[in-house]
Specification:
The chain is mainly beta. It has one domain: Sandwich (Jelly Rolls). Helix content is 11%, strand content 51%. The chain has one helix and 15 strands; from the N terminus they run H-E-E-E-E-E-E-E-E-E-E-E-E-E-E-E. It has one helix at residues 2-25; strands at 42-46, 59-60, 64-69, 72-77, 85-93, 96-107, 111-119, 125-130, 135-142, 145-154, 165-173, 176-181, 184-190, 197-205, 212-222. The strands form two sheets. Strands 1, 2, 3, 4, 6, 11, 12, 13 and 15 form a nine-stranded antiparallel beta sheet that branches. The longest helix has 24 residues, at 2-25.
């Protein structure tokens, strides 16, 4: 009887050990990692190597010229006393992120190169630009009248001189506008004036009896 009790006890103990071991060694299902953020949706993209129908036609006047050359869109502005030479993208946006590369091909370093956005039929819009001598600016234009809302401010992050390339990153998120260049935030402003409109690429010479010519590449517009 005693031997059976010991044997039974050992058997029970061994069974319990096996059950416990089985519980601890059973593989668990791997957890599925959740994405940290949703991917941005591309609203429009264009490497600007050639004309596309979404844009206004190329043009040339005594005040400026818009043309494609060497795989880039070129905007040449000849007269600082007249309206800035622009190329319009015939699409409307409200909130968006825009990335583009600009390069001063020739002419005055005292210039502006960048974009207008939320441009409506009443000639209301914002402008965000950099200059080839190292300044940045955000402005608004109400019925064509300009008001600077950030800058002009000099920044060492802007590459300067003829041949210098810069990457412009603009975010228009409801009433907040942020301008970054070459991965560095330069300005953030809040303004409630304009909600939606088209986008225009801009070159403007600020020196009398001179010109500025800027090339543009790799335009991408995405959702916020």
């Amino acid at each position: 009887m005693k031997n059976w009790q010991i044997t039974g006890f050992l058997a029970i103990l061994a069974l319990g050990f096996l059950l416990m071991s089985g519980c601890t060694t059973t593989p668990q299902p791997a957890s599925t990692a959740q994405p940290t953020s949703a991917l941005k949706t591309v609203l429009f993209s264009d490497d600007l190597s050639q004309w596309r129908s979404e844009w206004d036609a190329v043009s040339e006047t005594s005040d400026g010229k818009i043309f494609y050359s060497g795989g880039s869109l070129h905007i040449r502005d000849n007269n600082p006393l007249t309206e800035t030479t622009v190329q319009r993208l015939n699409k409307n946006y409200n909130d968006f992120i825009l990335d583009i590369d600009t390069k001063l091909v020739g002419g005055s370093l005292d210039n502006w190169q960048g974009l207008y956005f939320r441009h409506d039929d009443a000639d209301n819009y914002y402008g965000a630009a950099i200059s080839a001598d190292g300044y940045s600016n955000i402005a608004k234009f109400a019925n064509g009248n300009r008001q600077d809302i950030a800058g002009p401010t000099r920044s060492s992050y802007i590459n300067t001189g003829v041949g210098a390339t810069n990457h412009i990153h603009l975010e228009a998120n409801k009433n907040t506008i942020s301008l970054s260049v070459n991965g560095h935030l330069l300005s953030t402003v809040t303004d409630n004036s304009f909600k939606e409109g088209n986008v225009k690429l801009v070159a403007n010479c600020m020196t009398s009896n001179s010109f500025t010519e800027v090339s543009f590449n790799n335009l991408v517009i995405t959702t916020i």
